[in-house]
Amino acid sequence: MIEFNGVSKYYDGVAAVSDLNLHCPEGAFTVLLGSSGSGKSTTLKMINRLEPHDSGTLLFGGQDVRRIEVKSLRRRIGYAIQSVGLFPHWTVARNIATVPSLLGWERARIEARIDELLALLGLEDGRFRNSYPHQLSGGQQQRVGVARALAADPEVLLMDEPFGALDPVTRGSLQQEVRRIHQLQGRTFVLVTHDVDEALLLADRLVVMDQGRVIQQGSPAELLTRPATPFVRDFFGGSELGVRLLARRAVGQWLRPGEWLEGVEPIDEQMTLREALSRFVEQGCQRLPVKSASGERRGVLHFCDLAAQEQESMP
Ligand SMILES: Nc1ncnc2c1ncn2[C@@H]1O[C@H](COP(=O)(O)OP(=O)(O)OP(=O)(O)O)[C@@H](O)[C@H]1O
Question: Distance from the CA of 217 to the center of ligand 1, in angstroms?
């Protein structure tokens, strides 16, 4: 969907990104991960031409972005940023309606879309619709920012640290929400973050950047198990690589079916192996029964299997 071929961008002769080769596949959730100043935001802004690139080619849906009229390009791309950028004197509803109104949608269609998005982002409580941004919490404002970016059902959603300023609990619930929306709608999402756990939670495809260059790109499991350089390994927390890998895997794939255990509270098969590890430590046990969301017996998770799989996947 989006392809960078040898793309560079300079500010006052200094490269912000250089010779970028990067692919964001259609329908995938791509996350650009890197430390401050590594060129992530610049990369994102070149996609919707908020920043023009200086050399190389950047393709959007197979077309050179320079050949797509800026207005029509931006209509195809939603953009959500950390500072939200809501219009302060407009209600939530009017903020969300910004792009559909520009596109000349009929009133009834706009109203229906606002309702749909408020429900999608967990803001369906009637009071939000006509509130002003300053009457909302930071987390609610971020939700409205994402709703506004999604309003005209863009082909691509770009998000630059959209949960940056939030407390861990609100951040966690918004991350889950965005993941759910991605799975539901099957659109192409590109998100920028410097938070490793956020990246691992959301990404189908992960791109690690440093000093304006792509250091490695691939699936989260690939990067965790086969980091291409010591930098990538260190970025994922070196000794924490194994635990982070456990956070990507669900209990359901690792249990022994056909076994059961009485007298111990069962865990859910959707639980991550990382959470299960905490449960083993908390309860000081070696085995845990596993049930489905509807309460059916699925089998037993053995601590020794979990430890073995972590060793296998370590680089
Ligand atoms: N408008 C600008 N003028 C001059 N230099 C800039 C401009 N925007 C970015 N840069 C420089 O380009 C480099 C990459 O910046 P960029 O914002 O893309 O990094 P980032 O990885 O998104 O960082 P952060 O996580 O801190 O936002 C930095 O060295 C930055 O100082």
Answer: 21
